[in-house]
Amino acid sequence: MEPFVFFGGKGGVGKTTVSCAYARKCADAGVETLVVSTDPAHSVSDVFDQQFGDSPEPVAGIDGLSALEIDPDDEVTAHLDEIRTRLSDQVSASMVNEINKQLEMAHQTPGAYESALFDRFVDVMRDSDPYDRIVFDTAPTGSTLRLLGLPEFLESWVERLMYKRRQSIDLFEKAAIGNNEPRRVMDGDPVLQRLQERKEFFEFAGGALREDAAFFLVLNPDQLSVNETERAIADMNQQDLGVRGLIANKLTPAPDDDEDGRGARYLRDRIETEQQRLDHVRGSLSPPLLAEIETRTREVKGDLLGAVAEELAVPVDAEEPTFV
Amino acid sequence: MELAERIDRYLDTLDEWLRGLYHGMISHPAYEKIEKEAEDLEDAFMLACFPDAFGIPSPVSYYTAELLPYLEAEFESWERRLWDRNTMLERKGQQYHF
Questions:
Q1: Which residue of A37, A41, A80, A262 is surrounded by the most CB atoms within 10 Å?
Q2: B90 touches chain A (CB under 8 A)
Q3: A168, A170, A172, A175: CA torsion to nearest 10
Q4: Tens-digit pLDDT string for chain A (324 aa)
Q5: How far apart (Å, rounded) are the C-alpha atoms in residues A233 and A94?
Q6: If you write DSSP's letter for every residue of A226-249 in order, what string do you get?
Q7: Could you say which protein family the record assigns here (chain A) (predicted)?
Q8: What is the homologous superfamily of the domain A4-211+291-311 according to CATH?
Q9: What is the pTM of this model?
Q10: Domain hosting residue B61, numbered range
């Protein structure tokens, strides 16, 4: 299967648990694995009882498993600082203030978080060499879909900018009649160069997501979650990113046959409605239902994670990346 | 000898006049026009890069901010042109000398 595996779904359905369990399953099978959390509300640290940061760190007690948590806040600040440094090298002191204002504004726009997150996870895919498999524990459905839809959209935007820039430089060159020095020159224009770099970056991201990534959605057996999953599948198909499979989490456990108290009747009733919804999922949604994980009374970590991992019928073998 | 000198001086004056005439009638308005058009296109580029300067949120301004260190000259003249541009008609009209 593809080297990059994404787990998505509605908030609170257990994406982190499932992705950590899957990462552990891969590691146990001898596949060098990295689990990456792109959800600003991180919980990978909680699952493994260990604090993770911006660079991959091995998970204590599990061989072949590392984890990494992306903090979009840090990424935005780093991006801002990097541009500021270049700014002070290149721009005259009188203009720095003016441009600084613009710069700060750009980093407070609503898209900045998403862009920063996107940049970072593309970087992770690009430096995926030491790992055979990278598991992405993504943010809840909406923002993930936007994140994965970005490359194509941004690529065409950058192309448009490059076209405009080329046109104006071309005219400036033409305006330099006789021995006049043109105000801008096409050759070695740093702006075009940076735009080109950006374009290649988006091309890479789009290619890696289409060629080397598999997507799975986690859902709970309740109506809201099933509905949202249906919408997410439609959205992702529209973006040419097929959902490979579904994982049902937090299923109600069945009581013993001889029990007939109020609790047992409640559980049986609950299981019946859940089974109806799962039948609907099996019947009318196109990706197959790959796992049905019962709810646990205790936090899923440690040995419990291993138990959950066994219930996941998601293949662990990792192919070599074809695009990256 | 005197005649040759006078012819030379005459030719020099003629050359200067002709060059001036050509510059004033053809080359100057031409490059001015092209340059203004180029500036207009550059303004459109800057606006597409930094629409948030006008309060329009843009999905790419996070990325285009990377261009700012290289756009000093453009940024300054963009702002200046925005200040003294009243109407599109006036801007286009500046390119003609009646």
A1: A37
A2: no
A3: -130
A4: 888 999 988 888 888 888 999 998 899 888 899 999 887 676 788 888 888 888 899 998 888 999 999 888 888 899 999 888 888 888 888 778 878 888 888 888 777 888 888 888 889 999 888 899 999 988 766 666 677 777 888 888 899 999 999 998 988 888 876 666 777 888 888 899 999 999 999 999 888 888 888 899 999 999 999 998 998 888 888 888 888 899 999 888 888 888 888 989 999 999 999 999 999 999 988 898 888 888 877 766 767 777 777 777 777 777 777 776
A5: 52
A6: HHHHHHHHHHHHHTT--EEEEEEE
A7: Belongs to the arsA ATPase family.
A8: P-loop containing nucleotide triphosphate hydrolases (3.40.50.300)
A9: 0.80
A10: 3-94
